[in-house]
């Protein structure tokens, strides 16, 4: 199937050329510098995760970033507290990029310098800054890259105790059914009471990563709330204040954050 930004045919996740995703072009366009939208997201999730883990006792913490793609800052947001972070990604090109960032490449001792402003933004919160960790060393120590399809997460059960999913469920298909299933699989991978953050492109028409065009599902705040509702306890859904400007073809960004429903008590463990 040929994908185009103007085509009306429904494009399922399996139809898209994920192995031809160009992570270098994607990072250059979206994350070469810290843009206002991402700075706003970082401000919100650092408060959310920082507040949660400040209240928690000792014990192993396992994090997952579902559909990590070529974006490191969701993993950085979980970095101080996690004994292990799984970057779960479908595209072989993105898997290779993530592995290079975790292990270092071209003589570098860790991830690329363009990610430093993202970490610095997180460190404006004392929950990050007071831990005095070397983020690159910590990243190499705790991050592992795993290739897999979001729809296959069900086999893991609620393995992870904190999770992120940024611009994935709505940016992999034009199908609302697959969008909802993607959200369900993400939430199902989290343990009861686990904090989460998920970001969505609002009313996206699709996007390029290098020469290839990739599908998107048209969603707004209602669809995000509706898809998350059955799986969460306390949660917030908000449209970012920053104006859309990262690329053409969408109307804004939506961030959802909260806690996986505690299946025993029906409330989040906060």
UniProtKB/TrEMBL annotation:
Record's keyword annotation contains Methyltransferase: yes
Methyltransferase among keywords: yes
InterPro entries the UniProt entry points to: NNMT_TEMT_trans, SAM-dependent_MTases_sf
Keywords: Methyltransferase, S-adenosyl-L-methionine, Transferase
MF term (GO), any: methyltransferase activity
Pfam family, one: NNMT_PNMT_TEMT
Signal peptide: none
Domain of life: Bacteria
GO terms (BP aspect): methylation
UniProt-listed PANTHER family: NICOTINAMIDE N-METHYLTRANSFERASE, NNMT/PNMT/TEMT FAMILY MEMBER
NCBIfam families: SCO2525_fam
Protein name: SCO2525 family SAM-dependent methyltransferase
Origin species: Streptomyces guryensis
